[in-house]
Amino acid sequence: MFVACGGLNATMLLLERDLDTSGDLTTAALEIVLSTIDVLGQRYRYATCRRLVRGGFLPRAGACLEWITRKRLCYESTTTTSTAAAGTEQTKGEFDEEEEDKEEDVSAYGYQLQVLADLLRVLAERPDGDIKIAMAEPCVLDSMRHALDGATKSLVPMEVTEALLSAVMDLSRDPATHSALGRADMIDTLVRLLQGPESSVPPLRIQQPIMVTLHNVSMVSPQRQEAVTLAGVVPFLQRVIRANDLNLKGYAVDLFAGLAMGATARMLSTLREHDGLQFYFELLAAPAGSINQKWQMKILGSVCDWLERDTARAEDVLVRESNICVVRELFDRWPSVGVEVLLDAYRQMIRESSKYSRAMEHAGLIELLLDRYLLAPSKPFVQVLVLRIVDLHLDNASAADSDAAALLAIRLSLAPVLKHIITLAPAVTVTDLASQLMSKLQALLTKEQMQQQLAALPLPPSQVHATVTFPATTTTTTTACRAADGEKAKESAENVLSSCESDAAAGAGGGEDGVASMKSSPSAMAMIRGKSVLFGGGGMMNSACDGGGGGNGADGMLARTEEEAQFLQALDAFNIDFGEELQSIRSSKNGGDGSTAANTPLPSTSKF
Fold first, then answer.
1. How far apart (Å, rounded) are the C-alpha atoms in residues 181 and 141?
2. Is-contact 158 204, C-beta < 8 A?
3. Is 457 helix (H, G, I), strand (E, B) or coil?
4. Nearest Cα residue to 533 out of 590, 581, 478, 572
5. What is the rounded distance in angstroms from the CA atom of residue 212 to the CA atom of residue 124?
6. Which among 358, 343, 330 has a CA at the least distance from the CA of 304?
7. 601 — phi, psi (to 5°)?
């Protein structure tokens, strides 16, 4: 009934900014408004708040808040002056009497200040854009900022400060208020509150709403991000992250991770003062789970932008041995999900700095990338990025020394790796880019060097391990045990040939029947396509698996299977002389005379 009869609107008219002359009426009006909101409860709170905003409550509340804040500041300055003159102009008793009267006045204003702060917090909590925009008007935001300025000097009670910070935090959740918060210089005030009076650390209930507000207003605007940086938030963020405070660390890391993205010269200067680039590498080196991978991707992007804008000074930090190891270990432990973001950032970094590119070459990162993301099963886009990185490394090496690129290609065994990718990669974009790199290698290397490269094993350049799957077993081998495992591969090839011959015998009776029989046998398909890949076949397949001849082009028409690729990897990994082994096996199976069902001998052997 009270609200329906317009009592709430009439009550708001009692709010006056001068509490010295109308303090009782203003206090009563504030109590009535707060009681009305509490009595109506959550069900009608939203409608009541809208009614208050439409009735002009916010400008009057802002004026009252401004008056009380100024009164408190005036009291502080008067107290300071009076204390200095107490011994000269008046007796100590008179001075104490006057101080007691002023303290009583300030205490009374403290109650109104608390009620005003609570009402502003209730209004800001509403998920209503109109209410938030109305609260973002200068008459309200300026008064709230002045009150928070008083909090930096300990002139505002902690409960009032907490309520006002909560209101500002809720306002920052709406992007429509960000510009108004920036114009009101709220960012500088919040950062000063983070530092606390006399550089003391404020309690968590003060830090948390400030961190959320700074995070919200700076994440979508480079201008406000610069304002946050220049206000002095960097050392506080570093302190929070190192303290590993779970309540604040997420906001602090996310905010700090993006500070160098699109940073201006003044921002980079501020970050350099606090060794911000080295701190980025501390975050990249954090143990798995302590820093979210999304933040680490963002951090590497910031490092990339920093290198682009301040190359000379950033290079000195990036080429430190510890930081090079950090990047290598980051790629080593990173899962396949999201690695394209890291690869793209790294590609931009080596494009900007040839010095950093050479440092990473010596650290063995290229071998790691080829091993994990090119030769291992990966998405085509990831493989394309790795090939582009290799191309950039070759270009940077050529720019430094004409022979450096050739030496790098020989060290990485690029020719067999690229031949392997051209032969087996399923994506056209990958094979095309690999073919372009192969053409570049032919220009860099001599004919003899290319032949030596193509005669090398098609293993990952690191040659650390290769997992090879045989029909019956899976063996993890190293360079030291390849010779011992060669006998196993030979036995595997003998088993496959035996299976092929039995399948061919079952399907003998003509070329078409032989092809049909081979299609039904996975082992025969692995054998045929293995020959095609290794010897560059695709035409007449004159072997015991041809079913009496007529298997012309059958291998070229059939799609590769996973089993075939595994068998081919086994043969490649152990460097089996394919032609000689099969010829000897077939000879032994036919009484040693070398006669077979095929009319022509096997092609000349080659590793590809």
1. 7
2. no
3. coil
4. 572
5. 15
6. 343
7. -70, 170
Please name which of 274, 266, 180 lies closest in space to residue 227, comparing C-alpha atoms: 266
Give the SS3 label for residue 19.
helix
Candidates 210, 322, 223; CA nearest to 277 is 322
**pLDDT score of 451:** 67
- Choose among 250, 175, 174, 238: nearest CA to 211: 250
| Rounded distance between C-alpha atoms, residue 595 and residue 502, angstroms | 16
* Helix, strand, or coil (residue 288): strand
**168 in Cβ contact with 213 (< 8 Å):** yes
Q: Tell me the two tokens of residue 72.
A: 């408190």
In this prediction, residue 162 carries a pLDDT of 94
* Residue 291, strand partner residues: 288
Tokens 């350049």 correspond to 461
Instruction: Give the predicted TM-score (pTM) of the model.
Output: 0.68
Q: What is the pLDDT of residues 238-267, one digit of tens each?
A: 999 998 888 899 999 999 999 998 889 999
532 vs 261, more confident: 261
pLDDT at residue 217 is higher than 50: yes
Q: Over the chain, what is the mean pLDDT?
A: 74
Provide the 10 A C-beta neighbour count for residue 470.
18
> What Cα–Cα distance (Å) separates residue 388 from each residue in 299, 363, 369, 374, 434?
22, 19, 11, 11, 9
**In 401-472, where does DSSP find H-type helix?**
404-412, 414-424, 428-444, 447-454
Distance separating alpha carbons of residues 191 and 211, to the nearest angstrom: 9
Confidence at residue 78, expressed as pLDDT on a 0 to 100 scale? 55
- Per-residue pLDDT band at 198 (split at 50, 70, 90): low
Nearest partner of 296 among 330, 319, 251, 343, judged by Cα: 330
- Structural contact between residues 561 and 590, judged by C-beta atoms closer than 8 angstroms: no
Q: Which helix (H) or strand (E) holds 466?
A: strand 466-469
Taking a C-beta distance cutoff of 8 angstroms, is the pair 569, 525 a contact? no
Q: How far apart are the first and last CA of the chain?
A: 92
Residues 6+ apart with CB under 8 A from 452: none
